[in-house]
Amino acid sequence: MKRLYTIAIALLAIFFTFNVNAQEKQYKVSTIAFYNLENLFDTINDPDIFLNDEFTPEGDKNYNTKIYEEKLERLSSVILKIGADLSKLPPAVVGISEVENATVIEDLINKTDLKKYGYDYVHVDGPDERGVDVAFMYRKSVFEVSDYKSIPLNFDFDKKDKTRDHLLVSGKFDGEPMYFIVNHWPSRSGGEKASRPKRNAAGDKTREIVDSLMALDKDAKIVVMGDFNDDPVNESLEDNLRAKRKKSELKEGDLFNPFAQLFRDGVGSGAYRDKWNLFDQVIISPSLALGEPETYKYYAAHVYNNPELTQREGRFKGYPWRTYVGDTYMGGYSDHFPAYIYVIKEIKE
After folding, report:
1. Residues 16, 73, 85, CA angle at the centre, nearest 5°?
2. How confident is the model over 3-56, as pLDDT tens digits?
3. Which of 64, 176, 227, 335 would disulfide-bridge 36, Cβ 3.0–4.6 Å?
4. How far is the C-alpha of 251 from the C-alpha of 77, rounded, in Å?
5. Does residue 187 sit within a domain?
6. pTM (predicted TM-score)
7. Overall domain count for the chain
8. Does the residue 280 lie in any domain?
9. Is 8 a domain residue?
10. Cα angle vertex 113, ends 38, 11, to 5°?
11. Cα separation of 40 and 122, whole Å?
12. Domain presence at residue 341
């Protein structure tokens, strides 16, 4: 059953200034983020979930309440800081992936320092064999949910594979209509080339959702966020999703991927075999990329890769600091760095 929320929209008391044409202007600024939480499981064994027994006290990982609560605290400490150097507050919305169920999200937002910022969430149990889902967290003072829908991703060429659904959340962002599509596309298990058709299919499905929104409103403000398991230059994103590298390349219906430039600059959100990838991205519609000053528009894109999130020593020094490597507890955060963008709106006196 869908949850509908009716809440008072509070204007963000967040300002920053800079000089444009010798005139000082004031802007509201807010952060939109995505974070792969890497296997955020509770400690209870669910027999219907493949590999779930790993994340129990009886499993090979010796996963227990202490480790679970430590992981919650570490993840919340990161979310609190994403974009806060400019916005001075935690993100207005955060897409998340690799969460087992609603319980772990509730624990994350209610049993940590996130509680004081009034987060709520949208989550739908999906069919993934590992038991991990995507979800959407939001500060109720900024975003009002009007509707949401979980959209399955099925493969004509592989009927047996059950992967993560797409989560579409509609609502008002500080009073402006906005749509968020949270993704976790199929992995590269079995090799990049062999698994490529599944991510291309995911790109087609996401494109289909975007097209349906643009058919209703060609100027719809749409945010496509997620762990795409592909870099900005891969065909699933460039061709299937039509996420372009430059604003100047945008044609009707295209999306803008601000993380393409970061990737060209050598920025990554995860590493594997000494190669950095930028799988975690936030992609936006032209109305956000090229918006009018009096409405929210894109300002900048970043990867939150501060030193406390990195492995400090050993073979994986400099990589994202993980919770586990195999069955060895490392005490870290996640194997991904968060990705985020700033959106701004001019304040008219």
Report:
1. 15
2. 333 323 333 333 343 433 435 789 899 999 999 999 999 999 887 776 678 899
3. 227
4. 40
5. yes
6. 0.92
7. 1
8. yes
9. no
10. 105
11. 16
12. yes
